[in-house]
Design a protein that fits this description.
InterPro entries: DUF6925 (IPR053838). This protein is an alpha+beta fold and 360 residues long. The protein has ten helices and 15 strands. The chain has a domain of 240 residues. Strands 3-4-5-12-11-10-9-8 form an eight-stranded antiparallel sheet. It has a seven-stranded antiparallel sheet with strand order 6-7-14-1-2-13-15.
Length: 360
């Protein structure tokens, strides 16, 4: 089995891989463009930064991580998403859980040296496994924030929320795994109401209030919490969610991760589906499964075989896969509306950043 440290280093080098940290409803993402200038590049130290954002993983924590490879259904029948959840036991994953705006002082642990004198503020979202922060050296914004210390940003009358949206401070997601920093503008009126490409954040208050650690569509082990996610290159869509011709190499690379780090029964189930197709059995005779993740694995396996057959001229095999899909890949169970946005967990509709409802 591959060492998870080597897996993470390999994907830090791969600019097509995305990363996210946070909690359910509050996520910071790091993405790179091909050829984008690197302001920090030390993959063996788990560090990378561009002019738009940065990521650093804690080397000691990486060695304790429980990796969980997973695949998720898409509402589009030709697609699926995938990733590797990076987990710890809940007791080890817990952060500070602050419930009000709190000044933390200079961000001396910032990835870039030039950001270490700026002041870090915990937004007070009381997330289970993440302290979601902003960072600024803007005197005007600092004055407003300091006047509202101890006050909740869930208060619609808190002037700090509008000031944050106007000033576009850096966002910093802190977990026991490390940090992701986002330097770009907050999605909202100044960005045409959409998230900018590349590093950005999502805050959705109705999900944050649930106090859940992750989506129900991700098979996280009991008593564990995901601190972040690795999103390897997807074989059927790019980082902006656009369709691609099926990429057999990217598919094979993730299947290797799936076979090593998925819930143990799911790769076995995938092999059973492929064996049933190879023996050309009737889909009605395939053993039904009551577990949602097992059913999703069956459906996704058939979608993968469909894309492979269409890409490489499947003929009668494509007809057989279509027959199986008509029986076993139907319905909308476990499918969220926005999971096709690679690099973040399916969390529901995206709305403007503030007051405390964000994408940026």
């Amino acid at each position: 089995m591959a060492d998870i440290r080597d897996v993470l280093i390999d994907h830090l080098i791969d600019r097509r891989a995305g990363w996210s940290m946070g909690s359910y409803g509050a996520v910071a993402e790091f993405h790179q463009d091909p050829g984008e200038y690197l302001q920090a590049d030390a993959p063996t130290l788990f560090v990378r930064a561009t002019p738009r954002g940065a990521i650093r993983l804690d080397a000691d924590t990486v060695g304790q991580i429980v990796p969980v490879a997973y695949e998720a259904l898409s509402c589009r029948p030709q697609r699926w998403s995938h990733g590797v959840a990076l987990c710890l036991p809940q007791r080890d994953a817990a952060m500070n859980g602050r419930k009000a705006l709190t000044e933390l002082g200079p961000d001396t642990e910032a990835v870039r040296v030039t950001d270490r004198a700026a002041i870090l503020f915990d937004l007070g979202l009381a997330l289970p496994q993440c302290d979601f922060c902003i960072r600024t050296d803007d005197p005007a914004l600092l004055a407003i924030l300091r006047a509202e210390i101890g006050r909740s940003l869930f208060d619609p009358h808190n002037p700090a929320t509008a000031a944050i949206q106007k000033a576009h401070p850096h966002r910093v997601a802190l977990t026991r795994l490390g940090r992701i920093e986002v330097f770009q503008k907050i999605g909202g009126p100044d960005t045409g109401g959409v998230s900018p490409p590349g590093p950005h954040t999502h805050l959705l208050p109705h999900l944050i209030r649930s106090r859940r650690t992750h989506s129900a569509n991700t098979p996280i082990p009991k008593y564990h919490a995901p601190l972040g996610y690795l999103h390897p290159a997807n074989p059927v869509m790019d980082s902006l969610g656009r369709d691609l011709d099926f990429d057999i190499d990217d598919h094979a690379r993730f299947q290797d991760l799936f076979s090593q780090f998925a819930r143990p029964d799911l790769p076995i189930l995938r092999k059973a589906v492929l064996d049933g197709l190879a023996r050309r059995v009737e889909p009605e005779s395939f053993l039904s499964h009551t577990d949602r993740f097992s059913r999703a694995t069956v459906r996704i396996t058939l979608r993968q075989q469909d894309r492979m057959a269409r890409r490489f001229g499947g003929g009668s095999y494509l007809a057989l896969v279509s027959q199986w899909r008509a029986v076993l890949d139907k319905g909308a169970e476990g499918i969220a509306a926005d999971e096709d946005a690679p690099g973040h967990e399916a969390t529901g509709a995206i709305v403007p950043f503030l007051p405390l409802a964000a994408t940026g």
